[in-house]
Fold:
Amino acid sequence: MDRKNLERLRARYGNAKADEVFDPEFKKLNAALFDKPGQRRLPYGGISTFLDAPLKDDFSDLDIALIGVPMDLGVTNRPGARFGPRAVRAIERIGPYNHALKVAPSTMCRIADVGDVPFRGRFSLDEALEDIERYFKSAVRAGVKTLAVGGDHSISYPILKALGAERPVGMVHFDAHCDTGGEFDGSKFHHGGPFRLAVLDGVLDPERTIQIGIRGSAELLWEFSTDSGMTVVHIEEVAERGTEWVIAKAREVVGEGPVYVSFDVDGLDPAFAPGTGTPEAGGLTPREAQAILRGLKGLDIIGGDVVEVAPQYDANTTTAIAGAQMMFEILCLMALSPRK
Amino acid sequence: MDRKNLERLRARYGNAKADEVFDPEFKKLNAALFDKPGQRRLPYGGISTFLDAPLKDDFSDLDIALIGVPMDLGVTNRPGARFGPRAVRAIERIGPYNHALKVAPSTMCRIADVGDVPFRGRFSLDEALEDIERYFKSAVRAGVKTLAVGGDHSISYPILKALGAERPVGMVHFDAHCDTGGEFDGSKFHHGGPFRLAVLDGVLDPERTIQIGIRGSAELLWEFSTDSGMTVVHIEEVAERGTEWVIAKAREVVGEGPVYVSFDVDGLDPAFAPGTGTPEAGGLTPREAQAILRGLKGLDIIGGDVVEVAPQYDANTTTAIAGAQMMFEILCLMALSPRK
Amino acid sequence: MDRKNLERLRARYGNAKADEVFDPEFKKLNAALFDKPGQRRLPYGGISTFLDAPLKDDFSDLDIALIGVPMDLGVTNRPGARFGPRAVRAIERIGPYNHALKVAPSTMCRIADVGDVPFRGRFSLDEALEDIERYFKSAVRAGVKTLAVGGDHSISYPILKALGAERPVGMVHFDAHCDTGGEFDGSKFHHGGPFRLAVLDGVLDPERTIQIGIRGSAELLWEFSTDSGMTVVHIEEVAERGTEWVIAKAREVVGEGPVYVSFDVDGLDPAFAPGTGTPEAGGLTPREAQAILRGLKGLDIIGGDVVEVAPQYDANTTTAIAGAQMMFEILCLMALSPRK
Amino acid sequence: MDRKNLERLRARYGNAKADEVFDPEFKKLNAALFDKPGQRRLPYGGISTFLDAPLKDDFSDLDIALIGVPMDLGVTNRPGARFGPRAVRAIERIGPYNHALKVAPSTMCRIADVGDVPFRGRFSLDEALEDIERYFKSAVRAGVKTLAVGGDHSISYPILKALGAERPVGMVHFDAHCDTGGEFDGSKFHHGGPFRLAVLDGVLDPERTIQIGIRGSAELLWEFSTDSGMTVVHIEEVAERGTEWVIAKAREVVGEGPVYVSFDVDGLDPAFAPGTGTPEAGGLTPREAQAILRGLKGLDIIGGDVVEVAPQYDANTTTAIAGAQMMFEILCLMALSPRK
Amino acid sequence: MDRKNLERLRARYGNAKADEVFDPEFKKLNAALFDKPGQRRLPYGGISTFLDAPLKDDFSDLDIALIGVPMDLGVTNRPGARFGPRAVRAIERIGPYNHALKVAPSTMCRIADVGDVPFRGRFSLDEALEDIERYFKSAVRAGVKTLAVGGDHSISYPILKALGAERPVGMVHFDAHCDTGGEFDGSKFHHGGPFRLAVLDGVLDPERTIQIGIRGSAELLWEFSTDSGMTVVHIEEVAERGTEWVIAKAREVVGEGPVYVSFDVDGLDPAFAPGTGTPEAGGLTPREAQAILRGLKGLDIIGGDVVEVAPQYDANTTTAIAGAQMMFEILCLMALSPRK
Amino acid sequence: MDRKNLERLRARYGNAKADEVFDPEFKKLNAALFDKPGQRRLPYGGISTFLDAPLKDDFSDLDIALIGVPMDLGVTNRPGARFGPRAVRAIERIGPYNHALKVAPSTMCRIADVGDVPFRGRFSLDEALEDIERYFKSAVRAGVKTLAVGGDHSISYPILKALGAERPVGMVHFDAHCDTGGEFDGSKFHHGGPFRLAVLDGVLDPERTIQIGIRGSAELLWEFSTDSGMTVVHIEEVAERGTEWVIAKAREVVGEGPVYVSFDVDGLDPAFAPGTGTPEAGGLTPREAQAILRGLKGLDIIGGDVVEVAPQYDANTTTAIAGAQMMFEILCLMALSPRK
Structure:
């Protein structure tokens, strides 16, 4: 043991004030993050919000709004994602700093949990999708970027209608399923088809869309993906070619324009994300998903969502933990986007 | 089937507007409860608060404050009640109307969830108890009644210090344990002794205190209860004599003065409340507890608490459901108290 | 120990063939129940059916059809009862003999599990209710009595439309909620209102309807029950007056005509039935429910249902066990009904 | 508040040494129970033993041996009770004092956890029953009373063979099932028939046997109970007549001689004891079971068992808690038995 | 966004009939798979069968029979796999199409769930193994290939006796354990030794046998594997050399002849398959297992099994999901086998 | 199938005595491990101890002591690790042989479970840390190596004070967090800072310390790690460079001197180890952890710990399984260490 070093350390840390930090960069960040009153609270204390963000009633003075969308009328099997926002809010201690991207979003943007989309009712899928679209349009009008927590995947369609109204957006999409199916059981608006609708509405550019982690039994329903020009990366391809290849592919596909990130937790393997409505064995690991997301740094991420967290099937809350972590990764990307 | 009646019903309800109510009393209550904007929301939507009460930052313009006390440093066995407030807030659909007492508290008082006691830290039981006392004293100063959710039972001591500072209060106490033990493992301030301390501090009147549902293995530690003049009703006595007898006894004991209601969920049988730190087989049923609580109608209830909800042991959330229900029953009693 | 008795017992049982039974009544029943090939199988073996009944494709040669109705689009809070039929089928070892009623239904009637109502789709509540009505009408036409497993409580409305089409029926209804609410969130057809609709349609006779176990927060929405002439027995009344009184009341209310039995598992306390969408603390015990049901012996029970089993919230399967047991009790009543 | 009383209390308790106790009886018991070194340990510390009893390798210097019997080869449905001893040992804080019986067994007898029956193997039910008999016979020879934790109910047969070898014993039996069935699937030695075998072997006196809580679907298999002269108290009879009646009946039936107490946790309702292999809705409450057990005070209890705890179905450990509590109640009865 | 493409897509999909598919191959498959009446049902509707296959009573007109073997008398630790078939049947939405192998088995073969092996009883392991052998021999006689779901791994021995009776078969075996141990606790027929017995009986060719994923504590018991000429691939070798190497090795070992695939879910890591009797940390991922299985395409797979699914330890049903998926992968291999 | 081989196998194994082993090395090990009386017991039988080691009261005649440290007063979020030792002891069938390292520790050293650290009380973190230090110092004085099971990570500080008192030790540390934070909420002694304290006390050599698997949100608090000269390997680096690189790095860092191994189960991904107080998505797999640990073979491992197992969040016991396995891997390393 280096005696000198020990003495130096004792001198520096031995009598330091509580929480004193010496690294200049860390010092600055700590000051920015924690000196605000009320921030240093117990993780299990106070009202639970997304990523522990402050609570806010409207979109004023905001850069990024974290929005709950507790609606699962579009599921085709196990319901429950209506409790997804509640489950993700209950997760403690995600963020505020991302060591891989070296970024603390809340020091760069004004971020708040603005609560949940106000729904007119609980029985009509069509009506709910209208409510979502209206709400996200008001965010767009206010110049606020949005990061949503579902809810089932059908919510991405009205969100894209709001975010892509001006010009179609590209998309990086993590999922076990392409979700580009057609009408099903008499409804176009289920969780298996939002991206077909978004393309046909002209708000999502299929040629700037990449779908990652695809597998499972519904392949026969997804011809629209390839036919429309989307890039479909099956899970086998991720395993064989690695995350670096996926990142390069994704950046190539989405290019320079505005990009939406949609993260369905069933893209992950059920071991990591059992709490979801249509689990499929053999999926992504959180490490792979994080690596790919971080590889998108610098793209113009204009919004995102994390969907299909169904806490009824999540005995150990691993799904909500993974979902909250992915939400934070997307938030970091949004904070790092070139234009705000 | 009475044809006339059917025609009358069809005429009355057949073309009624949505949610129209005809009973005059119900009409009035519905109007009072639900016409406020934002109230008619999904039970799984929005930020979770105690009993779905509005969220508030301070004690101004309030009659009753619902307060979380996420602190379990006083437990002697299984920890976890620090997550009690979060668990109780997550329960949907308790209230707003009590059909047995025929009362809707939020139409009678100004009630809000004011969040959690702000703690200086997470390691010191003594310090935490000081923080609790300080916070509840500020409520008292503001003229606001308090209804707390623990946390372990050690929190009742500082609360009583705040609420009984002016004059000692009586107490109706539901529990498996008397919680009048002495110093234990070097600490006076554990969850097994708050009421001994409160008596010795002169803030709790033992002769106006009744303890209901007592059982379990620690009887040998509770001589203080009987020695000080408390009335101890073991669970066997509840079973033999019935709830009517318990109610009469309780009213006789606490008399006319100010009364505090402390509800430890381990007073219930573990089938109803498994999620707690020191479960004891053979306890109260929620029906018995509700009957006794409702029998206290008209007493001068100046505050209350529901403690020891530990969601880690509550796979089906029955404990949190029962705890939230008891919280609502106490709130009704507080709303019905003669003086506000 | 009586030496003679021991010798007699040894003579009788010591060399008896496996499973030999000496009591004449038991002998007869055992022969009727178990001599059929295939009956003596492992409880965990073979395809799971309701109460281990044989599986059948249609209503021919049947007296009573056990029918799954996996539909929960009518819930107002926690979804999941669409998996109720699957959960109830998975319960082992309920029946075939009821020791209290001294009856083995399968020796008296031809009973089969006919599978689930075939639904056109999974998104439309209105459409689903039509599908249910159509299916139960075909059972009625075939002269088959029905015993359904939901699904949420909205399914009782179309079932009653089928069963009461000829003449209105009476009802014994176990529930925490009256389920006679009006339009809600734009829909008449939710799980909080089936019995208002059934009365207005003239298929349910309110004056021959009794609702047992009522409690909870929605009392203000149920004026229709009392206004229409239904008898509402709150849980407090069950506790105070006892099951004998409830039985007498129920028999008095429903009288001689055809009776439907609807059992919502949330009528039970959440300790016994946590796996349900709208649990309410302080409910019936299974013992009380069984006692009341058995007290209906001899009434003309023309159909029944067990609804709101949501296995996602039923960690120990107690809800499914209780639900299956109540289903068996109703089946016994149906077998004992005067006219088949 | 009585000022004088407060002063007296402050004088007495204010400066008392830690844990000082003033009540003479309590003082004596506390001294007897806790002054032994090592006793005052954390409930979650150290090796888990039954009721926190000391661990011992043999029967020397013992009055009562607590014995695990981890064997479930006799089950007819859900296995898992082989882990029953481990689950019951893991329960904290049962005893050492029984406030209702006013007794602390460990101050009256020498009690130890002697570990588990050593089995030759894990595949043969017949062999396992021999191993159990041999082991309990060695306890009898050592003059030690036994209190066993199963394992499934088939273990009671070899235990009774050991304990009743000298003279037949009477029995108080808590269960949903009579367990007096005959050969089943080619085996006499399953968990549905131990008491038929014990009677035929002359080690159990049927006329001094009472079975309490009986219900469920296998009634047709239990003619042996009534035919042999056992007293069968169905659960409905407990509900109607009350525990006082059951106690009187039980004392009348078993009379003065030696009595064995066998407690199958499925005698309790599944809400209280879901973790068991053959649950039956509508059972005893722990309060009823405790009341009946305590009513046996003074009988000559020469041994007992708690069986069928299967922790795989016991998400909140309520079954293990109830089982451990019943074990303690039986231990108290054994300590209070007239002859040791 | 390519305007032309959008117009083309709108023209093609905008007014398409529900579920219309344009890709010729997909069109054909969809027609083959879903046009049959009754196929398009809710995943949570109807009687649960393996992989949603039709139910059948016998082996007539069948190519592949899916068979449940609910027997776990051979376990050496945690029981429960007797409920494995029920758990796997309850999994929704596996298949009907395998995107990696581009195959839909049910379009190529006649497949049915024929229910469970009829057992004479529930207590005798030896007898149960005879029942299994007899049943599978009848399948062989009927010219039907079998795919079994256990039950514990001891079932593979009688299955191999049936399938290898004519000539010994090769085997690809996924497991944490070699299962080639000798007599244990007096029984040869436990779940730790089926493959030693099969070799000694001449029905399994050790030199054409590969065991993949081996690890855990019982290595010392498995000398038979290497001594007999089996190829043992420890999990460390899978990690180091990759799945491509394993596939090549497996194909080299089993060669051209008939091959049996035995999949013990404890071959997977406990994160993916906690619900099993003898879990071992550090196992295969489902992705690896799927990759290896798919690499066996074209081999002459004459039968297979998925064993050791014990739902009691599977809170989130991930084990049953993984087991059902592996079952589907094996089914695809069987459909693709050169000779049927 | 090779006929000769089959005959040889039949000759060798066909009539072998039960459990006979022919491989000379395996024969020797089996003899050493299992011939001791009492060793061949059921995994679910007997008192549960760490890795099934014999129980012992003191340090005499011991080489390695397995020690429980049931203390979690240092946690900053979810408590529960106080039940970690109980959970790890309950895991069956880990060891006794490590196939990868080809070692059976109990044949090389005298190993025992010596129970838990005797704590003076349950409320004071400072006092508990003193108790731990005192106890481990007595082990050091007795010349016994220690392998501890926590408890939260704060326990490593007093252990290191005991083990490093003579000379500072190096460390291989698996964790999501560096645990080198400073004073927090007024306490230096929390689970986020043990290694800063150990360095400043001169008992841990930072330059011989490597931290593996680091990630999560608290990076800003860990400047001490890098500033003091520790080698920090973030999880991303493990993923990119592989375990071989990590092993080489670790061996380079710790060099020749004494090394402590500290394994925080939150170093693993929450899918593998959900049962812990501060889970972080995206962690190590058990396979990676095992590979790295085994790569440390031959180092002078003088002690170790496995910490932060909190069974309250571990529905399927995967965390306890992984923790027990890592404990065994460390034990093997200790047995293989050059000097004992």
Observations:
- The first helix of chain F runs from residue 3 to 13.
- Chain F has a mean pLDDT of 94.
- Chain F touches chain B at residues 72-74, 76, 78-80, 82-83, 120-125, 127, 184-187, 189-190, 312-313 (CB under 8 Å).
